[in-house]
Amino acid sequence: MEANVVEMPVEQKAVCMSRPSRFAPRLQERAIERLLQLAAFASVAITFGIVGVLAYESVLFFQEVSIADFLTDRQWTPLFADAHYGILPLVSGTLVTTLVALLVAIPMGSLIAIYLSEYASRKVRECVKPALELLSAVPTVVYGYFALLFVTPALQHIWPGLPGFNMLSAGLVIGFMIVPYVSSVSEDAMRAVPTYLREGAFALGATRMQTALRVVFPSALSGITAAYVLGVSRAIGETMVVAIAAGMQPTLTLNPLEPAATMTAYIVQVSLGDVPHGSVGYRTIFATGLMLLSMTLLFNIAGHVLKKRYRQVY
Amino acid sequence: MTPIQRKIARHKSLDRFFAFEGLTVMIVALLVLLALVGQLMFDGLTRLSWQFLTSFPSRFPAQAGIVSAWVGTILVMLVTALAAIPLGVGAAIYLEEYAPNNWATELIEINIANLAGVPSIVYGLMALGLLVYQFHLGQSFLTAGLTLGMLILPMVIIATREAIRSVPPYVREAAYALGATKWQTVRDHVVPYSMGSILTGMILALSRAVGETAPLITVGALSFIAFLPHPPWQEAFPFVSFEWLFDPFTVMPIQMFNWVSRPQEEFHVNAAAAGLILLAMTLAMNAVAIVIRARFRKRIHW
Amino acid sequence: MKTMDASQTVLKAEARALNFFYGQAQALHAVSLPVYDRCVTALIGPSGCGKTTYLRCLNRMHDLYPGNRYEGEVMLYPDRVNIVGPEVDPIEVRMRIGMVFQKPNPFPKSIYENVAYGLRIRNLSNKRDLDAVVERALREAALWGEVKDRLQASAMNLSGGQQQRLCIARALATSPELLLFDEPTSALDPTATSRIEELVAELKQKVAIVMVTHNMQQAARISDYTAFMYEGRVVEYDRTETIFTNPSVKLTEDYITGRFG
Ligand SMILES: Nc1ncnc2c1ncn2[C@@H]1O[C@H](COP(=O)(O)OP(=O)(O)OP(=O)(O)O)[C@@H](O)[C@H]1O
Ligand SMILES: [Mg+2]
């Protein structure tokens, strides 16, 4: 074949080679890529910042307070003359409000998700979803107001002895606040279940409820778990509602009708006062923050494990 | 009725009951929203006035106002947006268009997913330890804006990535086939075509930041500020001034929190009024986001 | 191979023992294939045989995705550069070689901007020059008459056939030396198809064309050379008349006569 090849003279090279040296643009491309990469690593830097600050201050804290005291002492009175540094009261406050919140958010969120994904028409869905999202768009401080000045008085009609600050109303309101997180993520998971699975159930004469509960819900369990974990994270970390409505008094109690401080509320309380920088009192909030972060992380990891366990391959 | 018919009838009524249940719960959730807004209006609507919008906080509830709070919110949001948007969009572009498939990329991805789940008050603690006491930025607008910027960074990245991902690969290929470089493809095609969703994500992230309270309490917001920050302009060249960045700050939700946590009922009225304005701000931002999304969607559909 | 008259035998590009890998999977096996200037070379073969893969080697499209690997060479003439060589910048290659895709893929911009984009990234920004080139390209793509009054309208509102011609105009605006078509008419109706075919016949006066097609008649109608590919290999390559009237390999004959594929 080489024999009958006639090559064009090199001078006739095409015009689009006229682009000037490729060196400058190359350099620019590389610089831009580096810049973007730097931006991406900024998020890692933030994590290092968070972990670094919490760890640093906590190490200093634990040089003065033993970890055993921190984890087992049943009193948290770091700013008193008779200082006790037992985190348990704050943890119990967080757990109780979180639990109340989940008791609201998980059933409600799941039912709404099932309704929207299995029963509602497209039109209803398209109206209701944004309205529900608004629930999570409301600033949390407004929810705090609502809990203190609407929900608590309303509950006091039922339990006349209910104190003005209590974990119940804070938990309930947090529950409503996180309903949209639970419902929208679960709904996405349920809608991702392929139609043929549903049709299989319908073909066997199942009603929509049976299909939803026995086929769709279990198939979507992986995604639904993720929704619950998201809800738990939100509830644990929620600050303003509890700081406003649940009181600031650290109390070791599991009774939601009582006032008690959560970990987050305690951090707010100290930040509002004027504890000197570098004192033990100042460091308590970092130790508390570390505890809070660890708990969130723990739930996230647990959720991740469950999510993997329930993962279905269609 | 035969037994089987009876069974079917029972299943059907159960089914209806279940549907009813779902509907009820949904309505309850929406009623809560309604009650919340209703309560705020009931308590606070009468307090809304020009005086309220233009007065500084005061010991006397009837004379107090929110001018330092809303000015503060706007300025803090400015810093937040300037910090979070370039970083977040840049990171998203990197991850979607440039990042190689290696452990470093994986690390960034896992990291962003985890950051999105970190409680907001923890960002406040980090900012307190790092920005306030390590970098000595003070308890200032700059610190507040950067804190919220870091807080919404994961949201911005996630929203932008999703937006970028919706640009189909064949559009990128069309640009590359013409000889475009990666950056040209991103700048001229990928980003413009996903601008609608990117903007929507930005506004939603900022609307979240507007309502954030806890991290700003932690870095040391003041709730009693009876003066405005330095103006961002000046007479002499270069006409812009950055002195305000280092002024002490307050924002709307902090002001509201301060009023809620006082025992006097008159202050609760102020809190409700501030809450209404705060709510209006976030809802307006959400509405703008929805409108932008709809408009861009109409313009570009794949 | 039969001898050909000299005007038809200016070599534009030539793959020599080209292997291509998607990660571990080898998609092309020792493909050797010449492409002559001012000719249409058709690539035919059953689905999955590597036609698209080969075409995308010619403008280094595979470099966009990680893990892809070329072996062997593709020489581009007249300057005898191996365009799949690692030292060659793929962007340089794409600047010289245009491509039209299976599905029309205009940018969601104005008609004008679509055609002008290739020039803009070549740093041409003078309005008068741009206008001239846009008009020339649209004329060459036989679209000028239909769109000259609405150059600023969105390209997304054109019909499928018009969009495809716009994509051709977009590729032509930068005066490519070689034009690659990947089943350009498979998403179009018969009328739009025949317009594109006429266009290709026009364009080959000026430029070398490689075209993948699933339509035997189309290959027979408009190509000068045809390569039949099968499982990542070139089974037979010859003048189109020869392939369609007197193929030397049984497999080719079976495929052309519709006995498989
Ligand atoms: N991105 C990819 N990654 C891995 N394998 C691929 C990829 N693209 C194509 N292949 C494989 O390479 C082989 C050749 O594919 P190619 O797309 O070139 O076929 P084709 O001849 O163009 O087919 P068609 O006529 O259907 O377009 C096929 O076996 C295909 O599965
Ligand atoms: Mg193909």
Tally of individual domains of chain C: 1
CATH superfamily of the largest domain in chain A: MetI-like
What is the number of beta strands of chain C?
A: 10
CATH architecture of the largest domain in chain A: Orthogonal Bundle
- Basic shape of chain C: globular
* Mean pLDDT figure of chain C: 90
Question: Structural class, from secondary structure content of chain A?
Answer: mainly alpha
Radius of gyration of chain A: 28 Å
Category from helices, strands and their pairing of chain C? alpha/beta
Q: Mean pLDDT of chain A, rounded to whole units?
A: 87
Count of the separate structural domains of chain A: 2
The largest β sheet of chain A comes out as: none
- Give the strand tally of chain A: 0
> In what range is the share of β-strand residues of chain C?
25-35%
CATH topology-level fold name of chain C: Rossmann fold
Q: In sequence order, what are the helices and strands of chain A, one letter per element? A: HHHHHHHHHHHH
Biggest sheet descriptor of chain C: 6 strands, mixed
- Total of DSSP H or I helical runs spanning 4+ residues of chain C: 10
Poorly predicted ranges of chain C: none
Can you put this structure into words, describing what you see?
The complex is a heterotrimer of chains A (314), B (302) and C (261). By secondary structure, chain A is mainly α. Chain A folds into 2 domains: 10-63; 71-309, MetI-like fold. Chain A contains 12 helices and no strands. Chain A has helices at residues 23-64, 67-72, 88-119, 122-137, 140-158, 167-191, 195-203, 208-219, 221-237, 240-245, 263-272, 280-310. The longest helix of chain A is centred in the first third of the chain and has 42 residues, at 23-64. Chain B folds into 2 domains: 3-46; 54-299, Orthogonal Bundle (MetI-like fold). Chain B has 12 helices and no strands. With 261 residues, chain C is of the alpha/beta class. Chain C has a single domain (10-256), classed as Rossmann fold, CATH 3.40.50. Chain C is built from 10 helices and 10 strands. In chain C, α3 crosses α4 (127-140), α3 packs parallel to α6 and α6 runs parallel beside α7. Chain C is globular, with a radius of gyration of 18 Å. The relative contact order of chain C is 0.18. The model of chain C has no long low-confidence stretch (mean pLDDT 90). Classes of the chains: A mainly alpha (314), B mainly alpha (302), C alpha/beta (261). Chains in contact: A-B, A-C, B-C. Chain B binds chain C through residues 100-101, 170-181, 184, 188-189, 193, 299-301, and chain C through 59, 61, 64, 66, 91-92, 94-95, 98-99, 101, 103, 105-108, 117-118, 121-122, 156, 167, 170-171, 174. Bound molecules: adenosine-5'-triphosphate (ATP) and magnesium ion.
